């Protein structure tokens, strides 16, 4: 009997090892770093490192460099990118580890040029921070301790080498070099080398998770849910499974889906060959619960799980989530040009949102909580789409998961900003794109793939009137030498061949556009408008912000002007003497190239407002003029629906504390523009506009159903006297814009209104008495208005888990700005007009006490 048991045991044990389930062993602890072959003896010592992490964050943690975000410390840390750095850790290979047939060392991200060695032998060399790097180290491991080391090389010598080795590619990278960085030769985040809102700090490190993955005969490479045909009646989908098999053999795939605790499973026998097996199985889901953008419905998700078994047991299983939805980019011609609109689940969606840049110059410092703070604020401002800009990096799964949950669609740029990659990178680029599309494709938030950012096809004719004055010298220099034919080839090969072939193969249901902006070679004329637009006429061409009400754009994917951050944020990177718009330190945190951004802001303020008395007032006005500019443009775009079908301003966030186009600063403090966005992106908008000798009051709706409402329009002076009232019952039609009321200017003239002392206020109220939208129209710029100086009364009280601030005034208090010094607060609204004798209540959340808030409360308004 013992002999029989021994034979059975001897038979089963090898089988258990051969067919054990795939496992992951994290390798994120126990790392050290030092300068590699450096000239600084104090940096030769090995010190503890944080993984995932970056060399700058490790040096800061060890107090070897100052905080580069403070004052002008950026220039004090430039030497870091010229050095080479080594990281190491010990891997203990015991019998339990070594029994596996395959032991893969996996880096989800290495930034960027690195030699990976095990026990002194180079096992991998990396050159792309946007790819996964994997190698089977079974044959390199020895029992006991093994030393894993990574040497990160400075990129400058490699760029010089590539430049010399590929002389024909210099034309392709001309723009990159003129912008001051290696933005095309190395597959590395371009923003690290500096942008017009960010610092120049080229970093390196193990920036994404690292682990060992053990497996035996098979493992599942990935699971994609291809959504071939999605309707409310039925979803026809495919589970695309890739299996890597080390042997020929038979197996069974079990595919299951669940939604709200219910679901189905399907079992399929499969014959596997050695290598990668591409397997696809169709599934029908009757009456699916669909995923909708924010404001259009729920964000229902499905769970999918694939289990791979053979004759002995389970070898691997993989799970994913997906939201079922159809996305169409409608570019059909119409009488005015060519449409540019997203249709989701059959609904034409007016895209409302902002662009996203890296949330932190050192992205490994981002947390789920920080992502939530920014993304929830965007959702609360009714944003339904954001563009992930192509000069940063593909975001983390946490980021996309939260966008899925919040219903925020992502316009996903591939990481090619402002310079075409040369063709010697073609294979590297293809692997990057394939990896990222497979990684991201199941997220319902992915609404479009975009090949690049602002890479105008070199040599293509450009209308001189569209070239900002500040860029004319730059473009003249760039175009002084005719581009080589290879330049055209490189552009078309990457953005019209390599990338769309991959996206169309893996995600045919997700639209692709080769560039932003992009009119598909349609020539734009006053009578023909096509494609998306990056319109910075106010910022770069000195146009008035009021002109934006007349722009004829189909879809704005970038626009904006800069605004200063909150004074509490300025306090974090300055000393008291630094706090002026022209100080050396403030200019060190102003990265707008070609012209000084602080000067531009000052000019726009001077056009719109009276001179600020001090820097705090300048900061208030710099925020306000940014917000008002966005308001004018966004409302005009929404009034023109369906001719115009999207507005995403530049930009939501910052990568460090800086003066920029962001409406939320680095610390997540909202500027005036973010508060105003809550109103100009509201599902129902009332917007009055002077046109054709009339005051036309528009009602605009993103709702899918009609809404009966009462529209009240009043002409009022700044002291609160009502000079004219119009009240009409109206039907606010869903998914449309229409004029609900028109008031001839002659009618206003007859009652002797003074445009310097009066304004229009419009309010839309539903059948239940709830205000759907309210808005004001002023007839002059703020500096030309003769305000009555208002005294704003404040009443701050605690109510349950929050505070309530009640504001009231007997005269108009325009654009009331509320601050609490350096206290951390969250306000439900800010920068609002407090109308005469019409109190407003603001909800406030803060950990501060009532006494602290009362002590630090400060009120500003334009009449002051």
Q: What would a concise description of this structure say?
A:
This protein has about 850 residues and is an alpha+beta fold. Helix content is about 20%, strand content about 35%.
Largest sheet: 6 strands, antiparallel
Average pLDDT: 93
Span from first to last CA? Answer: 99 Å
Provide the structure class. alpha+beta
* Number of beta strands: 46
Beta-strand percent range = 25-35%
**Which strands sit side by side, in order, in the main sheet?**
3-2-4-9-6-7
Q: Which assembly state applies to the chains in this document?
A: single chain
Shape: globular
Low-confidence stretches: 1-19
Radius of gyration, CA atoms, in whole angstroms: 30 Å
Number of helices: 19
Helix content: 10-25%
Textual characterization of the structure:
It is a single chain. The chain has 864 residues and is of the alpha+beta class. The chain has 19 helices and 46 strands. The strands form 13 sheets. The protein has a 6-stranded antiparallel sheet. Strand 30 (532-535), helix 12 (537-541) and strand 31 (555-559) form a beta-alpha-beta unit. Helix 15 packs across helix 16. The chain is globular and about 90 Å long. Mean pLDDT is 93; it is low at 1-19.
């Amino acid at each position: 009997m013992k002999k029989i048991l021994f034979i059975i045991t001897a038979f089963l044990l090898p089988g258990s090892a051969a067919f054990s389930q795939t496992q992951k062993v994290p390798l994120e602890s126990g790392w050290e770093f030092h300068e590699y072959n450096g000239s600084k003896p104090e940096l030769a010592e090995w010190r503890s490192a944080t993984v995932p992490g970056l060399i700058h964050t490790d040096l800061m943690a060890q107090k070897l460099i100052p905080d580069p975000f403070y004052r002008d410390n950026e220039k004090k840390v430039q030497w870091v990118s010229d050095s080479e750095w080594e990281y190491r850790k010990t891997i203990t290979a015991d019998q339990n580890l070594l029994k596996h047939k395959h032991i893969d060392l996996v880096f989800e991200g290495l930034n960027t040029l690195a030699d990976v060695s095990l026990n002194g032998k180079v096992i991998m060399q990396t050159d792309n921070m946007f790819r996964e790097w994997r190698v089977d180290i079974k044959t390199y491991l020895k029992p006991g301790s093994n030393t894993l080391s990574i040497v990160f090389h400075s990129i400058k010598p490699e760029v010089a080498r590539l430049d010399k080795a590929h002389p024909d590619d210099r034309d392709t990278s001309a723009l990159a070099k003129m912008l001051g960085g290696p933005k095309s030769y190395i597959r590395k985040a371009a923003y690290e080398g500096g942008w017009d809102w960010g610092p120049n700090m080229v970093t390196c490190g193990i920036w994404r998770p690292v682990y060992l993955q053990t497996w035996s005969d098979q493992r599942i490479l990935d699971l994609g849910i291809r959504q071939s045909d999605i309707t409310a009646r039925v979803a026809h989908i495919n589970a695309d499974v890739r299996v890597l098999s080390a042997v020929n053999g038979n197996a069974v795939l079990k595919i299951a889906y669940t939604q709200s605790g219910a679901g189905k499973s399907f079992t399929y026998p499969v014959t596997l060959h050695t290598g990668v097996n591409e397997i696809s199985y169709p599934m029908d889901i009757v009456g699916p619960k669909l995923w909708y953008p924010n404001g259009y419905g729920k964000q229902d998700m499905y769970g999918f799980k694939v289990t791979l078994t053979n004759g002995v047991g389970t070898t691997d299983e993989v799970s994913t989530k997906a939201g079922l939805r159809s996305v169409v980019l409608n570019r059909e011609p119409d009488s005015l040009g060519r449409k540019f609109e997203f249709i989701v689940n059959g609904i034409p969606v007016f895209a409302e949102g902002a662009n996203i840049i890296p949330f932190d110059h050192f992205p490994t410092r981002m947390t789920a909580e920080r992502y939530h703070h920014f993304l929830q604020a965007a959702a609360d401002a009714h944003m339904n789409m954001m563009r992930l800009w192509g000069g940063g990096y593909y975001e983390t799964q946490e980021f996309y998961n939260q966008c899925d949950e919040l219903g925020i669609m992502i316009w996903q740029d591939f990481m090619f900003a402002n310079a075409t990659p040369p063709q010697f990178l073609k294979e590297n680029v293809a692997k990057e794109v394939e990896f990222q599309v497979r990684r991201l494709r199941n997220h319902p938030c992915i609404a479009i793939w975009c090949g690049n950012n602002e890479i105008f096809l070199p040599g293509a004719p450009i209308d001189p009137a569209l070239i900002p004055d500040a860029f004319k010298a730059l473009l003249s220099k760039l175009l002084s030498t005719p581009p080589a034919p290879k330049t055209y080839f490189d552009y078309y090969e990457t953005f019209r061949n390599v990338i769309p072939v991959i996206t169309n193969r893996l995600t045919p249901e997700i639209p692709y556009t080769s560039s932003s902006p992009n009119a598909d070679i349609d020539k734009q004329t006053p009578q023909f408008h096509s494609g998306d637009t990056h319109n910075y006429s106010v910022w770069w061409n000195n146009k008035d912000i009021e002109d934006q009400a007349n722009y004829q754009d189909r879809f704005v994917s970038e626009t904006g002007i800069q605004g200063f951050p909150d004074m509490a944020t300025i306090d974090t990177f300055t000393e008291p003497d630094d706090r002026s718009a022209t100080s050396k330190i403030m200019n060190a945190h102003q990265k707008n190239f070609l012209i000084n951004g602080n000067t531009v802001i000052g000019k726009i303020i001077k056009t719109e407002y009276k001179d600020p008395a001090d820097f705090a007032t300048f900061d208030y006005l710099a925020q306000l003029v940014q917000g008002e500019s966005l308001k004018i443009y966004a409302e005009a775009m929404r009034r023109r629906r369906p001719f115009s079908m999207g507005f995403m301003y530049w930009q939501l966030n910052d990568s460090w504390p800086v003066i920029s186009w962001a409406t939320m600063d680095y610390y997540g403090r909202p500027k005036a523009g973010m508060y105003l966005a809550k109103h100009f992106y509201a599902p129902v908008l009332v917007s009055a506009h002077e046109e054709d000798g009339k005051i036309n009051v528009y009602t605009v709706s993103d709702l899918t159903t009609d809404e009966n409402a009462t529209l009240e329009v009043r002409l009022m002076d700044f002291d609160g006297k009502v000079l004219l009232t119009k009240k009409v019952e109206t039907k606010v039609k869903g998914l449309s814009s229409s004029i609900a009321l028109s008031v001839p200017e002659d009618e206003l003239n007859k009652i002797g209104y003074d445009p310097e002392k009066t304004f229009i206020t419009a309010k839309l109220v539903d059948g239940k008495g709830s205000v759907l939208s309210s808005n004001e129209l002023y007839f002059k710029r703020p500096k030309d208005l003769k305000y009555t100086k208002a005294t704003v009364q404040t009443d701050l009280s605690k109510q349950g888990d929050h505070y309530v601030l009640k504001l009231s005034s007997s005269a108009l208090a325009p654009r009331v700005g509320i601050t609490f010094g350096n206290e951390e607060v969250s306000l439900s609204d800010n920068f609002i007009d407090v109308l005469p004798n019409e109190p407003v209540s603001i909800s406030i959340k803060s950990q501060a006490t009532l006494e602290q808030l009362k002590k630090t409360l400060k009120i500003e308004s334009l009449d002051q």
